[in-house]
TrEMBL record:
Biased composition annotated in UniProt, kind: Low complexity: 494-515
Identification of the protein by name: Beta-1,3-glucosyltransferase
Keywords carried by this UniProt record: Transferase
Lineage of the organism: Bacteria, Pseudomonadati, Planctomycetota, Planctomycetia, Gemmatales
Biased composition (Pro residues): 222-232
One Pfam family of this chain: Glycos_transf_2
Location of the region described as Disordered in the Swiss-Prot/TrEMBL record: 216-238, 463-527
Keyword Signal included in the entry's annotation: no
Domain called Glycosyltransferase 2-like: residue spans: 10-119
Keyword Transferase attributed: yes
Every Methyltransferase FkbM domain range: 283-420
């Protein structure tokens, strides 16, 4: 007699004092239209009738497998026990008080080749007596929050089915998480899947019913111990009468950042006619995310901005700053020549001016190891293709990044890059042979910004005069009106000199090279 075929889908169910819900949950699995499932129920040392109910279920259906913990170890440990014994190609999750729709596992099996992590909608059922919404059902779609995947938990386990092989790459649930409110062990695993490059597919179908109860574990978990204070210094930025809170690095050397970006319009020289509707932007070296916020506010609120930032402290600011803006996706790694880890050198006065090399940071006060990805591989995995804007601000590594990206960078419609010396600027231009210099922003000391536009997007225009800057660089000058002023309380920047430059220093600027729709001349008169 041949051995039974392995199950197609393993369903993971942690159980703790869930006797009053278990029959409903188990029956929702038994009524699946896909017969090739196994249910791995782990009794996490329940004190009610859960154990006997699970035993009866296992006796009635051999596909139900029951495991018991000798002590209460928590949801993460219970799920890990199930995962360690799972045999299916796919893994699905069902909590003891929820239920699957009958076709859920069959649909997941049909979609398995299209993504490594399938994310489903699910229906929220208000089971809280006395609630004004008691008994109502509302569909929740995690796809609406896809851009916040790395910043928050966008779905409960009910909405996730993934290939079991992913666990070999990232491990299971973190058993140190999940005991306190907001300490989400499930969101942590989904984020590790994403950081490992797993392909996520948002399926336009509901997996089942999530019962919202006042006494559920997710609602009754105690608050965690007080964490560290929120990093960074608060500021407000915006357009017109609408402002948004942001936080910037807390060092004296970074006091100029908000003024430089939002008052000085450091990134205001991007030609609008080059941008397609719902522009796609790649921000390499995103720091605290001010460029992403500026682009969403000043250029295209529907843009999709991909932010790459390896510094953990900067990434924490970035994740918080872009949270109010749909369409901004943040990645906690840098782009480099190859996958791996590198030393990040820390600036003594400007936390936002960390650098991979020691040269731009005089003298470094320490270093930390950060993750980097092969720029070309990461670009292709994300399917970025032709982006509208490629912004590279990697403190001395701009040319390396452009070189690794190769044809991907040359396909970008607009490239904005930081440079530190005239030689750097020349090397950036050489890396973009199919682009034309459009504008340059120069300071007397510190880095500048250069903007290139793809040649096929440049319409013929009469030449303009050339002005020489005090830094010995040349570019054409065309006075053009700035955008609407930003509604933000103004504050003067301290006059400390930093590796990135400061608005307290005199700034020599130049603007666009050719005529076109209104763009912002890169000027900064703050002293």
């Amino acid at each position: 007699m041949s051995p039974p075929a392995p199950p197609q889908v393993s369903v993971v169910m942690p159980v703790f004092n869930g006797a009053r819900f278990l029959e409903r949950a188990i029956e929702s699995v038994r009524h699946q239209t896909l017969p090739g499932w196994e249910l791995l129920a782990v009794d996490d040392h329940s004190a009610d009738e859960s154990g006997s109910l699970l035993a009866r279920a296992a006796a009635a259906d051999a596909r139900v497998r029951v495991f018991r913990h000798p002590a209460n170890l928590g949801q993460s440990a219970a799920r890990n026990t199930a995962l360690a014994n799972a045999r299916g190609e796919l893994v699905a999750y069902l909590d003891q008080d929820d239920e699957f729709y009958p076709d859920h596992l069959a649909r997941a099996w049909d979609w398995r080749a299209k993504g490594e992590v399938l994310v489903f909608r699910y229906d929220l059922v208000d089971d809280m007596p006395g609630s004004p919404a008691f008994g109502t059902v509302v569909t929740y779609d995690p796809a609406a929050k896809f851009d916040r995947m790395l910043a928050e938990t966008i779905t409960t386990p009910l909405g996730v089915v993934h290939h079991r092989r992913l666990l070999d790459r990232v491990g299971g649930f973190d058993e140190d998480l999940g005991r306190f409110r907001g300490d989400d062990e499930d969101g942590d695993l989904w984020q590790r899947f994403a950081r490992a490059g797993a392909v996520f597919l948002f399926v336009p179908a509901a997996s089942g019913r999530y019962h919202v109860r006042a006494d559920s574990f997710s609602r009754t978990r105690p608050p965690g111990p007080a964490g560290p204070p929120v990093p960074g210094r608060p500021e407000r930025v915006g357009v017109g009468g609408t402002t948004y809170p942001v936080r910037v690095p807390d060092g004296d050397g970074d006091a100029w950042l908000v003024g430089e970006v939002f008052d000085g319009h450091a990134f205001g020289g991007i030609p609008r006619w080059c941008l397609r509707p719902s522009a796609v932007v790649a921000d390499v070296g995103a720091s605290a995310g001010l460029f992403a916020v500026y682009f969403k506010l000043h250029y295209d609120s529907a843009a999709v901005v991909h932010c790459f930032e390896p510094d953990p402290s900067q990434f924490a600011l970035l994740a918080g700053n872009v949270r109010p803006f749909p369409g901004v996706v943040s990645y906690p790694f840098g782009l480099a020549r190859a996958d791996g880890e590198v030393d990040l050198f820390l600036h003594p006065h400007a936390p936002g001016a960390t650098a991979v090399g020691e040269a731009p940071v005089p003298p470094a006060v320490g270093r930390t190891r950060v993750r980097v990805r092969d720029a070309a591989v990461a670009w292709d995995e994300l399917g970025l293709g032709e982006v509208d804007v490629l912004k590279v601000d990697a403190l001395g590594c701009e040319v390396d990044v452009l070189g690794v990206l190769g044809p991907r960078a040359r396909a970008a419609r607009v490239v904005v890059a930081e440079f530190r010396t005239p030689a750097d600027r020349s090397r950036i231009g050489a890396a973009l042979p199919g682009h034309e210099l459009f504008g340059t922003r120069v300071r007397e000391s510190g880095p500048g910004l250069v903007t290139y536009v793809r040649s096929d997007l440049m319409a013929p225009a009469p030449a303009h005069g050339v002005a020489s800057s005090s830094a010995g660089m040349e570019s054409a000058v065309q006075p053009l009106p700035p955008p609407a002023p930003v509604a933000r309380p103004r504050r003067s920047a301290p006059g400390r000199t930093t590796a990135r430059g400061c608005c307290s220093r005199r700034t020599t600027t130049t603007s666009t090279r050719r005529a076109g729709p209104p763009c912002v001349p890169a000027t900064c008169s703050r002293r």
